[in-house]
Amino acid sequence: MKVLTVIARILLGLIFVFFGSNGLLHFLPMPPLPQGVIVNVWAFHLLMAPEGLPPAVVVTVLELFLVWSYRDRFAGILRP
Question: pTM here?
Fold first, then answer.
């Protein structure tokens, strides 16, 4: 389980570094990026560019796996 957590962290980090660096280096043709977090990625792909939905699903699955892996650290915000 620890290996999967490390892999998910590295993949998620690489995804955000790669696509985030596009804002500076402009190596991918993309429309202007919305401000914010993973929720905005979902909303953008559902409403404006559905062809990019599979990567949004991958990012969401990785993020949910990491939240589950570190659930003891998220306990304060997840409890009512």
Answer: 0.66
Mean pLDDT of 11-22: 90
SS (H, E, C) the chain: CHHHHHHHHHHHHHHHHHHHHHHHHCCCCCCCCCCCCHHHHHHHHHHCCHHHHHHHHHHHHHHHHHHHHCCCCCHHHHCC
Distance of CA 79 to the CA centre of its chain: 23
Indicate the residue type of 21: S
Q: Tens of pLDDT along 24-63?
A: 888 888 666 555 577 777 788 788 888 878 888 888 899 8
| Beta carbons of 47 and 54 less than 8 angstroms apart | no
